Amino acid sequence: KMAADSSSKPVHMDLKSNLLAMNPTIIYVLVALVVVLITTLIFFQRRKNLRRAVLFVGLSDAGKTLLFSQLVARKKVGTYTSIKENKASYDVPKKSPLNFIDLPGNDRMRARFLDQFKGMARAIVFVVDSVNFPREVRDVAEFLYNLLCDPVISQHCPPIMIVCNKQDQTMAKSSKVIQSLLEKEMNVLRTTQVSVLESTEGQANNNTFLGKRGKDFQFADVLPIAVNFLEFSAEAPEEAQLSLFTSWLAKVA
Prior knowledge:
Elements: H1 2-21, H2 24-50, E1 53-58, H3 64-73, E2 86-92, E3 95-102, H4 110-117, E4 121-129, H5 133-149, H6 151-156, E5 160-165, H7 175-201, E6 227-231, H8 239-252
Parallel strand pairs: 1-3, 1-4, 4-5, 5-6
Antiparallel strand pairs: 2-3
C-alpha cells in the first residue's frame, strides 16, 4: 500500500507542476472555452423548453377549434370562424404542460398568425376536412408546402400530425387517400417552385427543395420533420382516436 502511495505521489506532483508551469494565457483560453460550451448548452436547452406550444392550423371550417376543445375539455363546444388565436394549457403526465394554440384558418390571416407563433412550436397539428378535401386539395397542399419550407420550421423541425377530420361522415376520404392526393399535389408544387427558383436565380437553392431529388414527393422524405396522419372525428371522437392522439402528444411533449 505504501509503495502504491509513493508511486502515485510523483504523478500527482508532476501534474500539479505542469499546470503551474503552463502559460496563463492558455489556461484562460481553456477556461473560456469551457464556459462558452456550458453557456451554449444551457442556452439551447432553455430555447427547447420555451418551445412548448402545439399549433393547430388548417383551412377554415376544417374543425380545428372543435378538435382543440375536445382535447382540452373533452366535450363539444359551439364554434365560429376565429379572428384571433385560442389558447389553453394541456397537462402531460410526468412532463411540463403543453400550450395549445388554435390559429385562425382564414386565408388572409393564417400566414400572419403562423409567423407570430411558429417560433414557439414544439409540434403542429394540421387539420384537414376529409369531406371537402377533393375540392380543397390545392389550397391544403399549398399551405402545407409553405409550412414545411418555412425557415423557422425547417430549423426547429417540429413533428407534424395531419388530422383527417370528419371521418364520421359517409363522404369522408380516408387518411391513405388524402396522403396520396396530397403527395401528388405537393409534387406538382415542388416542380413549379424549383422552376421559378431556377429561372430567377440560375439554379435552385438546396435549402428550398422539399423531399429527395430525382424522386416523386413523399412525406417520408421530409425528415428530420416527422409527418404522421390520423383519422379523427372531432364531432364525436372515438376513444381509440383520442388515445392515439394523446399518446402522440405525450411523445412529443
